Amino acid sequence: MEVDLSVKNVTKSFKDFTAVDTVSFDVERGRFFSILGPSGCGKTTLLRMVAGFEEPSSGTIEIRGRDMAGFAPNRRPVNLIFQHLALFPMMNVADNIGFGLARRKESKAEINRKVSDILERVNLPGFETKKIHQLSGGQKQRVAIARSLVLNPTVLLLDEPLGALDLKLREQMKIELKKLQEQVGTTFIYITHDQSEALVMSDYVAVMNEGRFEQIDSPQNLYSRPATPFVARFVGNNNRIIGTVNKSGDSVTELVTRNGDTIQAKTPDPLPAGAEAELFIRPESIIIEPGTEIDGLNRLQVVVSSVLFDGANSQLLVQSGKSAEELLISLPQNRQYDHITAGDRVEIGWDAAAGNCFEAA
Fold it and tell me: For the domain 3-233, what is the CATH code?
């Protein structure tokens, strides 16, 4: 595959503060690549450097093999979409989309043809004469994307573009954006702090923390096999159990928890005996009342603190032993658990391979 964007050892410092710290990655042509991280981690600064609004303190940024050093934003083959879409309210849809083409001095007939074509591609055929105030939030989003795509950028940069939408529309637009990217084939670089957006839409996700990339991987691998404790905490819901390493070897580590329970976890490398460790286990990996027919599970006796009803996303909040630590457990939809109420004592279990264990920092 050809590479559309190559970032090599890029650092950006502001006086004594390093916002982006020696970041490197490649994005292949036609990929949906997301940069996921909390506010202040450096992801927007990185995007602004790709767009040309900031210059790296060191390192290089190449688009299709061409070094972008010294190229102004308007001379780079990229377009940037912000959370606030900045559509012109006094113009209709066609004039908004054709604005950049008009500035390029393209003919009116060519502008009309390209606008009509791009409206078809973003599923808004016949919307040329609509006013911006007549559009829904999702339609405005697609007009903003169409305005960028009509200029045929090599890379489309999106900085939290769904952040201003309500929850239901955001869920809908995640699916639409993914379908649109696959249809048009343009390389998307997407910035977000919302893990669901990154996981649903992306081919690859880079998890960023304090200016560095912690892991670049497929959404499936990020979720099931996080490389660091930060990724385990940040991507998806996770329960954390603190313990001391009793013994470790052959990809299995045995921990003694603060409550005195002995549990096992799969680890790629042995952990030193006596070290403090963190075990992360997903709520959906925990079995409620597993019974005796399943062998080899980690088993704990817990007390139900609350039943958190949320339809298909309902969960139990339970407390393990004498500690104040609480665990979240997903309620599977293929079984009824109406008999469980707050205050009940139940057994839970999970397979050792379902957890991810790290030596505590």
Answer: 3.40.50.300
According to CATH, the topology of domain 237-359 is: OB fold (Dihydrolipoamide Acetyltransferase, E2P) (2.40.50)
What are the residues whose beta carbons fall under 8 Å from the beta carbon of 59, sequence distance 6 or more? 7, 8, 9, 10, 11, 22, 23, 24
Four-point Cα dihedral 218, 222, 226, 231, nearest 10: 120
Cβ atoms 279, 265 nearer than 8 A = yes
Handedness of CA 24, 235, 222, 164 (dihedral sign): negative
pLDDT tens readout for residues 10-39: 999 998 999 999 999 999 999 999 999 999
pTM of the model: 0.88
Measure the CA–CA gap between 294 and 351, rounded to whole angstroms.
Answer: 10
The CATH 3.40.50.300 portion of the chain extends over: 3-233
Which residues lie closer than 8 Å to 258 by C-beta, 6 or more apart?
Answer: 242, 243, 321, 323, 325
pLDDT digits 0-9 by tens, 152-186: 899 999 988 887 777 887 888 888 888 888 888 89
Question: Among 17, 34, 37, 28, which residue's Cα sits nearest to residue 212?
Answer: 37
Rounded to 5 degrees, what are φ and ψ at 36? -115, 130
* Listed range (171-175, 226-230, 334-338, 350-354) with the worst mean pLDDT: 334-338
pLDDT-derived band at 324 (thresholds 50, 70, 90) equals: low
